[in-house]
Amino acid sequence: MSPTFKLAIGSLIVGAVVLALKTLAWWLTGSVALLSDALESTVNVATALAALVAVRIAELPADANHPYGHHKAEFFSAVLEGVLIIVAALLILHEAWNGFQSARVLDAPLDGLAVNAVASVINAIWCSRLLTRGRALRSPALVADGQHILADVVTSVGVTIGVLLAIVTGAWWLDPLMAALVAVNILWSGWKVMTQSLSGLLDEAVPDETLRRIREAISANADGAIEAHDLRTRHAGPRTFIDFHLIVPGEMTVLDSHKVCDRVEAALRDLLPDANVTIHVEPEHKAKHSGIVVVE
């Protein structure tokens, strides 16, 4: 079982525990704000399940129908998570509107807040773990899950402040107001998750700093070649795809040009262990005198 899959299972378990605690907090108080927090945790469980399935599919080896692998499955999971977050926000706005129309005194608010605080601490610890390991493993699904849980932690803090203010001031309309603010916050979170995931589905290039290091690795390890041009990159989960044209002297043998390519590929895989490198070798009359100059 891979580390990514273990984390996905952990997310599902933690999500279920947190949902149970937040539902108990709402049941104790009748708070619309706490109900909104519980609704968001419902989305956490659904998206954790989606991430688990996506991670499992993404780890499948390449086959005849999917020669480049199944890595993009994680991006679909992250997009789905963004959609579910937005749906949860709309449900919360509906509950907040109902709360404004009939604001009520909360039952056992301190007990409910105490239970909710326990759930928030669990969420915060797991969120830190997911973001750290998800980025290290280059897993879009786990990072998206961690970002959503981070938004959930912020939401819970805001809910706690709002309910405490309602208790102190007796202004019980603060409860549905806080629920509405929660909805706006998670709408923004959902939008960010979706846009980041769509960039992967649309074959966005690697970040500028990574691209700079790729160019340097090609330049420093292509001894015997003249230049490299038409460099293209894209990423799909942990996999980075790199392809470019390598210009060599016309008299260079196929064997020697192959050795140059092997050397460059090895350097790129040292830089990016999950790199998939494709090099098209061309004779020197195809040179564009632009792109990457080989350092002798």
Description:
The chain has 296 residues and is of the alpha+beta class. The chain folds into two domains: 3-201, Alpha-lytic protease prodomain-like, CATH 1.20.1510.10; 208-293, 2-Layer Sandwich (Alpha-Beta Plaits), CATH 3.30.70. It has helices at residues 3-29, 32-58, 73-101, 109-136, 140-169, 174-201, 208-221, 254-271; strands at residues 227-236, 239-248, 275-283, 292-293. The longest helix is centred in the middle third of the chain and has 30 residues, at 140-169.
Q: Provide the residue-averaged pLDDT.
A: 81
* Radius of gyration over C-alpha positions, nearest whole angstrom: 25 Å
Biggest β-sheet strands, sense, barrel: 4 strands, mixed
Could you state the oligomeric state of the chains shown? single chain
- Give the beta-strand count: 4
Overall shape: it is: elongated
Biggest sheet: strands side by side, in what order? 3-2-1-4
CATH top level class name of the largest domain: Mainly Alpha
| Beta-strand percent range | 5-15%
CATH superfamily of the largest domain: Cation efflux protein transmembrane domain
Q: What is the annotated CATH architecture of the largest domain?
A: Up-down Bundle
SSE pattern: HHHHHHHEEHEE
| Total domain units | 2
CATH topology of the largest domain: Alpha-lytic protease prodomain-like
Domain Cation efflux protein cytoplasmic: 207-284
Protein name: Protein p34
GO molecular function: cadmium ion transmembrane transporter activity; ferrous iron transmembrane transporter activity; zinc efflux antiporter activity
Domain Cation efflux protein transmembrane: 11-202
